[in-house]
Amino acid sequence: xxxxxxxxxxxxxxxxxxxxxxxxxxxxxxxxxxxxxxxxxxxxxxxxxxxxxxxxxxxxxxxxxxxxxxxxxxxxxxxxxxxxxxxxxxxxxxxxxxxxxxxxxxxxx
Length: 109
Prior knowledge:
Oligomer: single chain
Number of strands: 0
């Protein structure tokens, strides 16, 4: 039993050395802006500027008036039949919009 452990140890060390990043590797690069912007902001609170910017980008809506009644209506129009039935702009509406966009594919459709 001890001999089997001795034989496995060098193999385990060799595999660990192959998978460990070497010191000459550069830091991981950030994703391209288009890919990063399509990703849902995991830490952004509903109704925050980051959340509004993400929804605007996903639905190709001008973020300049994000959170206004006109922006809310533009979101409703872009979502079409999938648009939430809650009052536009309400916390329930924001939650439904967020959930819908997170389940859509990365291209916003």
